[in-house]
């Protein structure tokens, strides 16, 4: 599935979402691996099969098998870490922050791609999943690696657009289902 086919599934009430998807697709401010890895990691984080299939299809032609696997790994590991660290942050009992997480996360240390790209994908997925602790941690690693604020902002903008595409498509499906009743 192409970006154009994905855009065609976005209903008219979400015209801005369609326009944002077009601008994201044509954005060339990020290197290809960073951009297309964001497509995959963020699409998976939306948990929307239509969005995931479309953006993975687009990205597969641009990414090496290792980069594609790393983008999927970023989404998977952040799904776990975002739940855990959001809980630790939000729980009233601050003792949890002193306890070892006891979660395997070796892929973060050795993602199989440029560490900054993996961190960028992890940050964007953490933004979708709403984990402030993980956002802060990944942003610090990116800053320490010399990644500028504009790149971080672009990654989070992509995450916002991809999430909004998923919501618009889901809302259209709900409207169709309700109309059929």
From TrEMBL:
It catalyses: N(6)-[(R)-dihydrolipoyl]-L-lysyl-[lipoyl-carrier protein] + a hydroperoxide = N(6)-[(R)-lipoyl]-L-lysyl-[lipoyl-carrier protein] + an alcohol + H2O. The active site is at residues 131, 134. Residues 95-175 form the Carboxymuconolactone decarboxylase-like domain. One of its GO terms (biological process) is response to oxidative stress. Disulfide bonds join 131-134. One of its GO terms (molecular function) is hydroperoxide reductase activity. It is an enzyme of class 1 (oxidoreductase). Keywords: Antioxidant, Disulfide bond, Oxidoreductase, Peroxidase, Redox-active center. Its EC number is 1.11.1.28. Transmembrane segments: none annotated. Belongs to the AhpD family. Antioxidant protein with alkyl hydroperoxidase activity. Required for the reduction of the AhpC active site cysteine residues and for the regeneration of the AhpC enzyme activity. NCBIfam families: ahpD, ahpD_dom. This is Alkyl hydroperoxide reductase AhpD. The gene is ahpD.
């Amino acid at each position: 599935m192409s970006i154009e086919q994905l855009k065609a599934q976005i209903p008219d009430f979400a015209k801005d979402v369609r326009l944002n998807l077009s601008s994201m697709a044509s954005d060339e401010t990020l290197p290809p691996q960073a951009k297309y890895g964001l497509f995959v990691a963020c699409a998976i984080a939306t948990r929307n099969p239509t969005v995931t299939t479309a953006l993975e299809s687009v990205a597969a032609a641009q990414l090496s098998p290792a980069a594609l696997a790393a983008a999927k790994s970023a989404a998977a590991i952040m799904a776990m870490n975002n739940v855990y660290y959001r809980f630790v942050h939000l729980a009233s009992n601050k003792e949890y922050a002193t306890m070892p997480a006891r979660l395997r996360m070796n892929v973060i240390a050795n993602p199989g791609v440029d560490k900054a790209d993996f961190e960028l994908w992890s940050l964007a997925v953490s933004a979708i999943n709403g984990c402030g602790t993980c956002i802060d941690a990944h942003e610090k690693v990116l800053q320490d690696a010399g990644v500028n604020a504009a790149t971080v902002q672009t990654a989070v903008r992509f995450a916002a657009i991809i999430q909004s595409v998923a919501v618009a498509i889901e809302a259209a499906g709900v409207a169709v289902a309700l109309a059929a009743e």
